[in-house]
Design brief:
With about 240 residues, the chain is an alpha/beta fold. About 25% of the residues lie in helices and about 20% in strands. Belongs to the GPN-loop GTPase family.
Length: about 240
C-alpha cells in the first residue's frame, strides 16, 4: 500500500528515537534551540501547537480523496479523524458565490475553496493522507489536480440531496479512481435501504456502501477502513 506518484511520502525511520506520538512546540527547531524566525505574525496562531510525527512502525502511505457536494461533511469528517491539526481553507460564503453555487441550507455559512488536509494512521502501519475536495463545480480544475496520485476516494453522500452527489461520483469514475461510498447520517435524514441507495446512486455491486456520522470518530474511521479494505481487494485482484 505504498503511495503512488503524487503522494507525499514520509520516511518512518527518520526519527527512530522519538516516541510514537512525539511532540514539540512551534518556534523551536529540531535541535531544541530557539528559532529566531518564529516570532513572525503568521506563526502566532501555531503557538504551543503539538506536532505529531509519523510513527516509526509505519510501513506505507496512501493519498486518499474525500469528495462530495458542498455541505456534505467533508471538512467535518477530516477534522474528526485527523491525528494532526487539519488544514482547512474554509471561507465565508458571499452573495457573489451564491449566484454561482448550488443553494445550500441557511445554516451553511462557510465553504471549502481549495482543499482540506488531514492525516490518520491505521493499525500503526499505514498512514492515510486525506485530501478534501471543494464541492462546487467551479472548482473542478482544482478537484482534478488533487486527484493526481490518489490511491482511492471516499465519496460522502447526503440522502436529503442524492442528486448532488452524482457529479462527484461521476468524476471519480471518469478518472478511474477506486472509491467507496459513505452516507453521512444527518439528524433529519430519512433512512433508506441499501438496495434503494445503490439503485439511486447507480453503484456497481462491488462498490462498498456504509452509513457513517462524520462527527463521530469511530464511525468515520470505520468508513475509511471500508475503503482501504476495498482498495486492497482491488489491488490484489489486479496483480
Amino acid at each position: 500500500m505504498a503511495g503512488t506518484d503524487g503522494t507525499t511520502q514520509t520516511n518512518p525511520t527518520a526519527r527512530q528515537g522519538d516516541a510514537d506520538r512525539t511532540t514539540r512546540t512551534d518556534h523551536t527547531n529540531e535541535t531544541g534551540e530557539t528559532d529566531e524566525t518564529g516570532d513572525t505574525d503568521d506563526m502566532d496562531d501555531m503557538d504551543d501547537t503539538p506536532v505529531m510525527y509519523v510513527q516509526p512502525s509505519v510501513a506505507g502511505a496512501a493519498k486518499i480523496l474525500v469528495v462530495g457536494p458542498m455541505g456534505v461533511g467533508k471538512t467535518t469528517l477530516i477534522g474528526t479523524v485527523s491525528e494532526i491539526k487539519p488544514l482547512s481553507t474554509e471561507a465565508t460564503m458571499s452573495q457573489a458565490g451564491a449566484r454561482l453555487d448550488t443553494k445550500v441550507r441557511p445554516s451553511k455559512t462557510t465553504t471549502t475553496v481549495a482543499l482540506d488536509f488531514g492525516r490518520i494512521t491505521l493499525g500503526g502501519e499505514l498512514v492515510l493522507y486525506l485530501f478534501g475536495t471543494p464541492g462546487q463545480q467551479r472548482f473542478l480544475p482544482a478537484w482534478k489536480d488533487l486527484a493526481r496520485g490518489a490511491l482511492g476516494a471516499l465519496a460522502l453522500v447526503d440522502t436529503r440531496d442524492l442528486e448532488g452527489s452524482f457529479d462527484a461520483i461521476g468524476h471519480l469514475e471518469d478518472l478511474d479512481v477506486p472509491f467507496s461510498v459513505a452516507v453521512n447520517a444527518f439528524p433529519d435524514s430519512t433512512p433508506h435501504s441499501e438496495d434503494d441507495l445503490r439503485s439511486a446512486l447507480d453503484l456497481l455491486p462491488h462498490t462498498p456502501l456504509v452509513i457513517c456520522d462524520a462527527r463521530e470518530h469511530q464511525s468515520s474511521v470505520k468508513a475509511l477502513i471500508s475503503l482501504v479494505s476495498h482498495l486492497i481487494e482491488t489491488l490484489t485482484e489486479a496483480s
